Amino acid sequence: MPKPTPFHARIQPLCESYDWSIWAGQYAVRAFDVCHEREYNAFRQATGVIDVSPLFKYDIRGPDAAQYLSWITVRDLSTLKVGRSTYLCWTDEQGKVIDDGTCSRIAEGHYRLTAAAPMHHWFTDNARGYTVTIEDVSERYAALAIQGPTSRDVLRSISRDIDVDGMRFFGVQEGMLAGIPAVVTRTGYTGDLGYELWVEQHHALTVWDALFESGDRFGIHPAGLNALDVCRIEAGFLMMGVDYTGAFDALIESQKSTPDELGLGWMVKLERSPFIGQSALRYERKSGPSVSTVGLEIDWVALEELYGRHGLPAALPATAWRDSVPLYKSSRQVGRATSGSWSPILKKNLALARVDSRHSKLGTCLDIEVTVEWARATVPARVVKTPFYDPPQKKAVDSNV
Known about the structure:
Layout: H1 8-14, E1 19-23, E2 26-31, H2 37-45, E3 47-51, E4 56-61, H3 65-72, E5 84-91, E6 97-107, E7 110-115, H4 120-125, E8 133-136, E9 141-147, H5 151-158, E10 172-177, E11 180-185, E12 194-200, H6 204-215, E13 220-222, H7 225-234, H8 278-287, E14 291-298, H9 300-308, E15 325-329, E16 332-343, E17 348-356, E18 365-372, E19 375-384
Parallel strand pairs: 3-13
Antiparallel strand pairs: 1-2, 3-9, 4-7, 4-8, 5-6, 6-7, 9-12, 10-11, 11-12, 14-17, 14-19, 15-16, 15-18, 16-17, 18-19
Helix pairs in contact: 2-7, 5-6
């Protein structure tokens, strides 16, 4: 049986659709309404709030915490300052990505690492020789993501000693929210201005109530996974288990990926202290990855024409899709689109994809498979830059931007 999150008592009565999913063994709303449109618009036009408590969370403490984290992840955490967070991934000895998440340096010698999958066993197995403690705090802390152009206003209205206006992108602060001790990070999965709030679970409902009481005038709205999925595709964010398979979950080698193959090579600095997978990644860099992750813009006019040949209007899934779709170049398969969605704000049909690297150059035209009336066909899809959607307020400190 799935478990309720600490916010379930508030979320359950609001879920009029009864559309639930299971995330890490806990209840998660797909959409509060029959359609996720209002929730998506909250993320993009006001403030959407999503319960992200099912994320796995690990507190790493001790004098060797920075050195230990620099060993198990591809980032050099010795340079991460107190009050800063970073996005990272970690790999196995062959340089294949196990998972990705964020790491926040909350205080001197205190870091919090998030993951999509349970990682306590692997983290502890690789801690030998380091003076650190690794605590799984997944159930201790509740977490909310508040995302959207007015999220700063909402957060400011319930904080007293957190400098919301001065907090930079990927900043971290400890303070009081509605009288409750909390950690606030300027992070999120929507590609917009946003924050994540981390509080002990017995304080969860107090923080929820304060947010929605103060945030009403800023257009606050609860949101589910369907709206989040559209936003994360617009932002070009990958999802483990969808856009890539974690090394521990892969059945065969070809299902695994390196950071360079996932477009995460920018976070890998090979000329530094040793880390797990370093030798394999150094070897790959000599020749470059054979597979690349790209963004695609699917030709809408061609899609309409294809449906029109069957006497039908063009049709798209109501939600973001996660089933891999073949990609072709000159009638030969060269990759697959892993997830995609119609973007309401950009008015474009978007996808994330894995393709042979020789076909990954911006502007390359590929063909994506489309099935209409049980007949397979293709329409053009052009390789474009990601993120597809990158609003100025995402990184801006000035609340007037």
